């Protein structure tokens, strides 16, 4: 453990470091075109890198950015070697790629075998490797291994490898799944070792030779491969020490090393320029400089996003998963990439005609560096610097470019722009609250009132009232003070508009920001109003808005049959990954209503994006939903609020704080963190709510620190919390109302029976695949 102190870098020190880096930086490669990237915007990464080096997060790095035409930015920063003596970083430095091996070497090799007919994705691994398909592995397929859903252990013991490769493979063949195959995303090196073995058996070549002959040599990647030659060691970045000597040119991963340096999960060495050639090949539909490595169809199949138990993955590639912390935040939903444990990252975005290569040896010299956030920031900067579309690579083999968006056009924006067409000549009732604003923060009420084309007659309000600040039982009818229009409460004596309330109307318009969770009541209000509109022959117009916790992540459990209620209005999973417009289409079709439904869609929205990436104003959707982080946590933490715990209501950070008077903070957090849910950490704390549960009482519990909002499996975290509460405090935690929002009796009972989190997650996944198929017909935005 290092005792080195991290000292904040002052401005003058940054300036000195930048001058030093400038002296070491080699000339960048020719740009694809003079105006493809804004070089001043790209320069914004330099101080970020300087500060990270000064903090000791990495000794140095090489960054390459470009598009299908070539490299637009190539620079080296800091040092290649720190100990035993400093050596400056250069752009031709060779790096241990660690897990970037998985897609670039192993995954691409598997796809070469696929397109030559040597294997199929649906093939059972046991049929390709005799003796492997036993002990519960009989049905595991090649595709499941590529997606990390084969149920295999992430890493078996290093001791299994110490008796040589032959014995190591005997032990791998004898392994049993740790979870039921196909039910859970479990990132696994063992799965990719197995894929590497498949390449060797089917090709008759060792993995390193096959990758060299089929990928690296044809692409001119002259410095790439396994077991780098001694001639490359002089410019290879060291990692850590092994047996008292610095590791230079040998793979850092201990299992790959014990297998002789060649494995499916690690062992590749490469440079930034070589990886740029690989990336350009992928952006070019499988071809570079007249040499074809993969067909366009193979590239599309390899890189398209697939649901992998709540994560979006390609075949060997990451797309939007718990490991996407190093992904640029402005990349399109077609981006794919991967990171490596040693400090490497490669992201390729056909939607923006962009690649980003980041190579460092973060483990040198003290085994303590960290670079994932830095890689993600550089990817975001690269996206923001794009200022021209595809050029030389435009062809039928290239997929069309989608520029990174800055601000989404909301449904209300589009409605006004297009002259309020669905409302012209109609008497309009508007269901809205304080979240109903346009992109300039004007209330939708005022947008409609100020239009000569619209006759706005009446307002309707959901839970929390028109201003969104009421947090009690019923909401009374009233008058909007600014427009003078009457508003009718849909959270009072009736939650469905009555015939009297609809009298004199031709159209109902719905414009409220949802947060993407089944038990958030605004979608129930919409559904009841749609039903009333169908019964009375009214048109129903939905002004769509982005789902702030993204439109791709779906987490069960599904609603138990016949459990519909105001907090469970339709057969949905807890986190549905849909917009209100898409939900409206589903409600109308599946309820069989004869309804004149019009959805005014948003424009420029990437379903993989989170709320902060839309360019839109954050408005608290309800009194206790005060930050995007709270919204991301809510589908899980919110499940517990019907029990006798505080979920932070009455504090400054609802749903980010959790506790009860009978919880020991250290005991609780230690147990919860041991559940292993990625992207969030529980930090012990005491707090005293000034409202709601345990008002005025000192509660022990946790702050939930979300380290990656995109990567959090919120519902799984909620299930883990419930499991820990029952395990530690069975006599204190009252689970009598736990099923109120969960609405899944199987999970409630399994929790009380002491089931492990893996079993609870398996139960939560039941029926989700069927929902995804149902959902497909109603999606308005490409997933």
Automatic annotation (TrEMBL):
<dbReference type="InterPro" id="IPR048503">
    <property type="entry name" value="NamZ_C"/>
</dbReference>
<dbReference type="InterPro" id="IPR048502">
    <property type="entry name" value="NamZ_N"/>
</dbReference>
<keyword id="KW-0378">Hydrolase</keyword>
<protein>
    <submittedName>
        <fullName>D-alanyl-D-alanine carboxypeptidase</fullName>
        <ecNumber>3.4.16.4</ecNumber>
    </submittedName>
</protein>
<feature type="signal peptide">
    <location>
        <begin position="1"/>
        <end position="28"/>
    </location>
</feature>
<feature type="domain" description="Peptidoglycan beta-N-acetylmuramidase NamZ N-terminal">
    <location>
        <begin position="428"/>
        <end position="628"/>
    </location>
</feature>
<dbReference type="GO" id="GO:0033922">
    <property type="term" value="F:peptidoglycan beta-N-acetylmuramidase activity"/>
</dbReference>
<dbReference type="InterPro" id="IPR001466">
    <property type="entry name" value="Beta-lactam-related"/>
</dbReference>
<dbReference type="Pfam" id="PF07075">
    <property type="entry name" value="NamZ_N"/>
</dbReference>
<dbReference type="InterPro" id="IPR012338">
    <property type="entry name" value="Beta-lactam/transpept-like"/>
</dbReference>
<feature type="domain" description="Beta-lactamase-related">
    <location>
        <begin position="48"/>
        <end position="374"/>
    </location>
</feature>
<dbReference type="Pfam" id="PF00144">
    <property type="entry name" value="Beta-lactamase"/>
</dbReference>
<keyword id="KW-0645">Protease</keyword>
<feature type="domain" description="Peptidoglycan beta-N-acetylmuramidase NamZ C-terminal">
    <location>
        <begin position="632"/>
        <end position="781"/>
    </location>
</feature>
<dbReference type="Pfam" id="PF20732">
    <property type="entry name" value="NamZ_C"/>
</dbReference>
<keyword id="KW-0732">Signal</keyword>
<dbReference type="GO" id="GO:0009002">
    <property type="term" value="F:serine-type D-Ala-D-Ala carboxypeptidase activity"/>
</dbReference>
<dbReference type="InterPro" id="IPR008302">
    <property type="entry name" value="NamZ"/>
</dbReference>
<keyword id="KW-0121">Carboxypeptidase</keyword>
